[in-house]
Specification:
Distance between the termini: 36 Å
Oligomer: single chain
Number of helices: 21
Shape: globular
Number of strands: 13
Largest sheet: 9 strands, antiparallel
Structural class: alpha+beta
């Protein structure tokens, strides 16, 4: 993120423009400033000053600041790729959709608001400073971009450490290995990669992290090409044609082509998918999901690819993607959705996000068996699973939920406490066990603080309104409660 100047703006603001579903947007320069003429919050054409740029390559977005402190991202971006690659042009981020002024995705609406959607990841030391009474932002930041302190914390001690390195300090008792950094990332230290003799793959003793493959400051790969994969996977097994089965192909597929397919984001930004999936053309045949094989062989049907994979690896193959059928069943209201989701939720080998999602999807299928799954989920080490277990109970009467969920009012993770108190809000204070009231009140304060922090989001306002109504508060009491 940068302020819009002659040095930072890449787009053509020399009276150029773009037509999109009947809306003509024009980009111009006046008195050293940059402006866009486009549809405003009321759908009528207006002129807005560009205050900030967002991004550099392969595209650059532009931000408009409004008098109420809101900073909004325009839907039209500049393609900064070379002209030979199709760049040097204006394009719409929703090329096939008509986004009218009353659509939540319109550039003037909350979903395109920088203050709460983008700021905390793209700038350093952000304070949103939203005032729900006046409905205004007074957002501040320490650095407009992502600086060192965004990850490492306040840097004054590091500066002091650096100065000390330039002077002779014989009385220093021990070297400061942290270099004065409040937060020092050393996840690669003392990590072992034992090789599994059965499959030739390495298993990291703390789990794979970003810095195993990339330099954390430049994001560049530590090892180019297939070398990054072969740090952990035995070359004699996985860099061999016996694994890829494409020995006769002029350009055999790479590891990333099969397990990290390239996806295009924001129309022009092609990046590798980091889900590391095993190609499953058999699921494409059954469920219509995409797969790497048919992305390459577009002229062949999924069954053709599924038959080929089965001929190479046999009918009984292991895969980590074991929950697609369950989620498909849940979202199509299939008769076996309950049973399939239960299997996923109970499987400890399924990633936490999969188990959490399965528990949430079980909300319409409450039964004694599923409540038992929720009880187990409440004790899971991952907070996502605990929240998923709470989500499952949302259709039950609050009085019935209380004995199940009230222990999570004192969960070590705030998000879990907030979800628990939102489920229990309908229970009158007089009906609450005396021993739980203090924990309930404390979690209530956290819930209200969280909703006020995100008060510019419609869903947050709705959640707070529902919560206060569930507590049976009058309008006057609600206002007092909000103020507190």
């Amino acid at each position: 993120m940068q302020r819009a100047t002659d040095h930072t703006v890449l787009g053509n603001f020399n009276e150029s423009g773009l037509e999109h579903h009947g809306v003509h947007s024009r980009f111009v320069r006046r008195d050293g400033k940059f402006f866009v003429e486009t549809d405003g919050a009321d759908g009528k054409p207006a002129t807005f000053e560009i205050k900030y740029t967002f991004g550099v390559d392969p595209l650059q977005q532009y931000l408009v600041e409004f008098p109420d402190g809101r900073i909004q991202a325009l839907p039209i971006a500049w393609d900064s790729r070379p002209q030979a690659a199709g760049g040097q042009r204006w394009f719409h981020l929703y090329p096939d959709e008509e986004i009218k002024h009353d659509d939540i995705l319109h550039w003037t609406k909350p979903n395109q608001n920088w203050n709460f959607m983008c700021a905390e990841c793209h700038s350093t030391g952000v304070r949103k400073n939203y005032d729900p009474v006046t409905d205004r932002f007074a957002t501040t930041w320490a650095e407009i971009n992502v600086g060192c302190e965004a990850c490492h914390g306040q840097g004054s001690r590091h500066v002091e450490w650096a100065r000390n390195q330039r002077t002779w300090w014989p009385l220093r008792k021990q070297e400061d290995t942290s270099k004065g950094l409040l937060v020092s990332f050393d996840e690669r230290r003392s990590v072992a990669w034992p090789i599994d003799p059965q499959n030739g793959s390495a298993h990291r003793s703390a789990g794979v992290t970003f810095s195993d493959c990339h330099d954390p400051h430049s994001s560049k790969l530590r090892v180019s090409g297939e070398g990054g994969c072969l740090q952990c996977h035995a070359a004699n097994l996985y860099a061999d044609a016996k694994h890829s089965h494409h020995a006769t192909v002029v350009q055999p597929p790479t590891c990333s082509a099969c397990h990290m397919q390239a996806r295009t984001y924001m129309v022009v930004d092609s990046r590798h998918d980091h889900s590391f999936r095993v190609p499953r053309p058999d699921l494409s045949f059954k469920l219509g999901t995409p797969n790497a094989c048919n992305e390459r062989h577009r002229d062949k049907p999924p069954q053709w690819a599924a038959d080929a994979v089965e001929s190479w690896f046999g009918p009984n193959r292991h895969s980590f993607q074991t929950y697609a059928a369950a989620f498909r069943a849940a979202r199509t209201d299939a008769v076996d959705a309950d049973a399939l989701l239960g299997v996923v939720a109970a499987d400890g080998n399924v990633p936490a996000v999969g188990r959490a999602t399965a528990l949430s999807e079980l909300a319409p299928y409450i039964s004694s068996r599923n409540i038992a799954l929720a009880r187990t989920g409440f004790t899971d080490s991952d907070p996502m699973v605990r929240i998923g277990a709470l989500d499952m109970l949302e259709n039950l009467p609050a009085t019935r939920i209380w004995p199940l969920a009230s222990p999570l009012l004192s969960d070590p993770v705030r998000g879990v406490r907030i979800r628990a108190v939102s489920l229990l809000a309908a229970v009158p204070t007089a009906s609450q066990p005396p021993g739980d009231r203090e924990r309930f009140d404390q979690a209530t304060k956290e819930f209200i603080a969280a909703q006020r922090f995100n008060a510019d989001r419609p869903e947050a306002r709705t959640a707070l309104g529902d919560f206060l109504s569930q507590r049976g508060l009058t309008v006057d009491a609600q206002m007092e409660y909000r103020a507190r």
